[in-house]
Amino acid sequence: MSFLTPNPHFQGDLIMIMEHMEKLIGILMLVIVWNILGATIFAQEQPPEADKTLSPYFWVKSDDASVDPLPLRSTTAQVSIAGVIADVKVTQVYKNEGQQTLEAIYVFPASTKASVYGMKMTIGERIVIAKVREREQARQEYEQAKQEGKSASLLEQQRPNVFQMNVANILPGDVIKVELSYTELLVPTDGVYEFAYPTVVGPRYSNLPEATAPSSEQWVKNPYLREGEAPPYTFDISVNLSGSLPIQDVTCSSHKTDIGFDSPSFATVRLDPSEKSGGNRDYILRYRLAGGKIETGLLLYEGKEENFFLLMVQPPERVTQAQIPPREYVFIVDVSGSMRGFPLDISKTLLKNLIQNLRPSDKFNVMLFAGTSAILSEQSLPATAGNVSRAIQVIDNQRGGGGTELLPALKRALALPGSETCSRSVVIVTDGYVRVEKEAFDLIRNNLNHANMFAFGIGASVNRFLIEGMARVGAGEPFVITKPEHAGGKAEKFRQYIQMPVLAKIRADFGEFDAYDVEPPTLPDVLAERPVILFGKWRKQPRGKIRLTGLTGNQDYVQTIDVGKFKPLDGNSALPYLWARHRIALLSDYGKLGRGDNEIKNEVTALGLKYNLLTAYTSFVAIDSLVRNKDGKSTTVNQPLPLPQGVSDSALAGGRGIMAKSSRAKGFWCRLTAAQKTALAPPPPAPAPSVLKEESPKKDIATADAEAEKSVPKGNVIILHDEIKITGSLSRQDALEMIQKHLRAIDRCYQQTLQNTPELKGKAALKIVTDAAGQVTDVRFESENLKNEALKACITNLVKNWKFSASKDGKAVAVEYWLDFKI
User: Potential cystine with 466: which of 399, 418, 432, 455 (Cβ 3.0-4.6 Å)?
Assistant: First the structure.
């Protein structure tokens, strides 16, 4: 046989080998394709809802050209300052340049002292004045208007310094203006007045599961731009400043401005055109009056039903060092990821400055905190050269990273053994990017007899509610550094402030002046050259004398104010708002101090409704009567925020996260942990479909339920399938899939409750009502033997965020589940 002659056996083998190679190549190609698809799926999917936390996430541009993801076009503030009162009008302009009807959600900050008393919405020539409502009622009215196709806006308070604006039914081409008005009191320190206008909410660290977090916390998961990206909207602010005395030393340290004087006591401050992207840092304006004097005196306002007063009195000069007792300082320093860069660098400089200037008779300690805390010594050390050097070395070695666990650090510091012969002061240095403000206030207030509390905020846009609130409940003074170049002066002022008490044991005697509802009811020690402030109401005629007494060093202090020399003026109409806002701030700060949550809520709600103020429990809602969006459908867009100037990307990722595409909204990115990454492993590839596709046989309900039950992770909570009741046009399958989807989260609520009540078990009814769109409007958790408020709150907060399928008949739906909780 010739070598070139084909051997039939060999030829058959060759064909078989080639066929096997083709199959092998096909398999390899499938593997490669699957790996690519699997990676894509891995990058795009989200972890189970119960595992996600309220982490903020990064935003990237959407590929969908029909949606304009940036509806906010500009934010403008017009400020009028007269004497010690600032009145501010903020205008937000929203424009829809896409092809779909939008709902815009924008989270923005405000001064912690702001009394928001009005809002209006303008659409073309139509002007709608907002009304103040109880928060739940305002939200319901807004949602109903949105579904009916009416343009509407809703202003809610998420924190005393964090607001959320919702604007519904922005049609393509629409320009909608929303204006809100607020007033605040300016209190000078060392003779310097400061007006601060916060521009952006910094990212908040939270370890709360997203699925079980209450609706009031959901704003934390807001989208952010990457480090260094300019705000996608323009920013402008102008100030008209007038005083009873000539104005001196007007400066704006945060932005480039043009300052002009129309007269010695009237100045105008305009933002330089180059600052149109300056909405990523606080706007700070400071000024003095002639001779460094403070606007002291009495303001009176006579209303229809109530009369209000505001008393501001200059304190005495500082005392000498010889009159100061031995002191102990505990410095608590935030070294989390959001402090990386200039905030941590300034913190090191500040701490070194404070420690190096301590007297030999003083003691000190240093605690560093992020996800955990570390302390220099288990008891405070004498301020010797060796101990100071050791502390500085510890501080210098910090680089910044991790989350922000403030409460454990505070508890540990307050538990340190103290000395009866020393005056202990706790100094907290942080940017305040946490969501545990109230818990921190409660802890500080309950320990005032153990230590003075001083808060020092460092960052381009710090959480002023936390910084000022800690100072307020701690009877101290808040200090904030927003730029590195201001650190030296601020640090020195802070050092002088905390080491020298000025006025102690202050008392106010109103005599014949019939004053009541005075705030604060007791006056704290004054530790800086700033006035004593009293708010209140008065009856009858404004007459008599107010007498202030106290101690300064080892001398008595007395000052008298003749009420008859001051007349009620219409120009003081802001006093009711200021009084009510101060009262609300105290109630909010002290909301957990021995008083029931419902009592606090009711009192704050009543104040908000009576004085037309935005509060945690009252909101402003403006609804146009014209139906403009006929089908009621819209795309919801969360307005992405710039990171505050100087804050790095690590503030969102905590230095440990990875990025993955979110299904929450097109073009948005969120943070996933390594554990969540593991949970997102791609499923095995599905078998290739046959050429002829057979129709799956229909299953009865019992079979479908049984198969669905097998797919649900086993836990301590069981669904009683026979007890499911549905009223309305929602299928049983949809109702069952919803409860199964969230059964793991419900079980987690139960597991958390068992830690404190290990014997808790029994059956419970979960009753849910949804609107026509499937949004949950009411939740009830009822049980005869599972009467546990923590379990009830956890599950109801979880269910409030569920979204069922829309009803087929356009009507509300009621679903009742029965669950068996077994240990």
Answer: 432
If one counts every other C-beta atom within 10 angstroms of the C-beta of residue 371, the result is 18
Q: Is domain 297-315+503-611 in CATH 3.40.50, yes or no?
A: no
17 has pLDDT over 50: no
What distance in Å separates the CA atoms of residue 160 and residue 109, rounded to the nearest whole number?
9
Residues whose CB is less than 8 angstroms from the CB of residue 699 and which lie 6 or more positions away in sequence, other chains included:
707
DSSP-derived 3-state class of residue 155: strand
Prior bond of 520 cis (ω within 30°): yes
Q: Which amino acid is at 418?
A: G
Q: How far is CA 755 from CA 410, 749, 791, in A?
A: 24, 10, 11
- Residue 434 scores a pLDDT above 50: yes
CB 85 within 8 A of CB 577: no
554, two tokens? 């080892």
Phi first, then psi: what are they for 357, rounded to 5°?
A: -100, 10
The two tokens of residue 287 are 């000024």
* Region for 360 from its dihedrals, namely left if φ exceeds 0, alpha if ψ lies in -120 to 50, beta otherwise: alpha
Helices (H) and strands (E) in the chain, counts: 16, 40
Say what the pLDDT of residue 170 is.
Answer: 92
Q: DSSP labels for 30-75?
A: HHHHHHHHHHHHHHH----GGG-B---EEB---S-TT--S--EEEE
Query: 35 with 638: CB under 8 angstroms?
Result: no
Record the pTM.
Answer: 0.60
Confidence of residue 168 (pLDDT cuts 50, 70, 90): very high
Rounded to an integer, what is the distance from CA 425 to the centroid of its chain? 27
CA distance linking residue 355 with residue 351, whole number of Å: 6
Pairing of strands 266-271, 307-313: unpaired
pLDDT, greater one: 591 or 412: 412
Say how far apart CA 452 and CA 449 lie, in whole Å.
8
Query: What class is the 325-499 domain?
Result: alpha beta
